Here is the input.
Amino acid sequence: MYARIITSMNNLRLRTKLFLSFGCVALIPVLIVGVFLTSELRNMAMDNALKQITANVDRVKKRTGELLDVPLDIAYRLSNDSRLEEAANHRYVSVYDVVQAYWNYPDFREFVRLYREISSIRLYIDNPTVLDNWEFLQADETVTQEPWYRTALAQKGMVCWNYIRDNRDGRYYLSLIRKVNFFKQRTSGVLVVNVNTDRLNGILNQESFETLIVDENDNIVASNRTELLGQTLNDLNFKAESAAGPGFYDVSIDGKPFTMLIDDWQPGGSLNSLRIISIFSVESIVKEPNRIIMLASAVILSALIMAILLIYYFSRLLTGRMLQLSKHISKVGSGNLGATLVIDGKDEIGQLARQFNHMVRNINDLMSEVQESNRQKNAILLKQNEIKFKMMASQINPHFLFNALESIRMKAHVRGQADISQVVRLLGKMMRKNLEVGNRRISLQSELETVSCYLVIQKFRYDDRLAYELHIDPKANLVQIPPLIIQPLVENSVVHGLENRIDGGMVRVDIRIEDGLLKVQVSDNGAGISKTRMHEIRQMLESKDDYESNNIGMRNIHLRLKLTYGPECGLTLASQEGFGTQISFEIPLRSDSYV
Here is the structure.
């Protein structure tokens, strides 16, 4: 990977490298720092805005809580007022009595006069003898079907906050709703205290960000934008990924990004909650940071343009001299060895010019030497070709040899010499296998066929002096091995172990699979090898020099095994003079090669 990068860089022009260097050293760091500072500046502005909006919401909650404490206190006092219980449950016999009772209970009007936090109070009761006025109202069927009314009756005096319509003036108010139990009369009514909307909006008007108070049904009950009163959140045409609970949310209003803070709140431990929502425009918050960023970007861009112009100027100075050097190199490349470059400086390019002139002189000096070397090389090649031609002329056509052996076999077979015929057939088969051997691997079974042919031929030659045994694990027959790595070992045991022994001997081949290895052992009970000769053989196997001896086949097998399967997979020899020799090797059962 690193080499490919270096190669790609070397293929670039010098001017391009200078610009890349400028980009890596100056442009990219400046851009990274600029992006980082820009991001941090925007984040700081957003963090400050979030802290401010959080403080605003806390302030709104505190001031609104103080306002809503008034209707809470009034509702508590009225729910324990025995005079209210008497006025609401008394059975009146005339209109005069009703009017007189209303005048005798002015508390509703006094609360409205004393506390500007509320706009009105009304009580819904089930008493057919009373008259509907602004304060005491009959709970008709329309009212009793309202969700807020049924919710209030279902609770045991808990407070609910709802944005409901007051039928008396047709306007909507944030209202405290509470069931009032009259224990003496064993009746109940529903108290409704309307919060002063102007005072509620006045609290929000002091906030710099757009702030809303929303009930549980998403009705906007107060806002510092009066045109939003009475609308719902869905009417604002904003989209939020999730705005289910308290927290900050990124929203889109009319396609523009906004940040919204939602805070749930249950005034006085009420049954339901109100939500304070504060919204600010992201664009307005980052407007000033963006202006600073644009100014800084203009300054940085001007500096970068000036730096690029300076790099362009200096790169032309460098590339002009390099181009002149390139032209002279091209002249030399085309055969003009008389080209000489004028040296015009002491910098690196001037040093290259001096080295170029020195190189041209050296090339002229070497030309004569090269011509003489080529003449000698051609003479050597001519001699080698002559030797190859003589070697090819001296080769015997193998097909002629096979045909001759087949003729001998047929003659022996016709004359009843079955053993001679069999030996000649095996000899031809063995020679054909040896000639067909290439670099490809063969199965162990194919190699053992060659071994069997060889042993049968040698058995014919030595008769009773030679005995052999083959002990082969059937599972090993299909293992792929390099050709001719067992037959030469068997041949070595017969020739060197038994040939000089008058009473002959035994050759044994053991092949088995064990521990993921193919284990091969060729042993004989022949003359054995002396310690001195064993030391010489082992040195010969490990030596890197070429040998011309009777053990060249064994060394060849040893090197092939190590090259194919690794340095630990060579031949292992064990011998005792007068008792025989064992040659063995182990190779892994794998299809890949060590090299």
User: Anything to note?
Assistant: The mean pLDDT is 78.
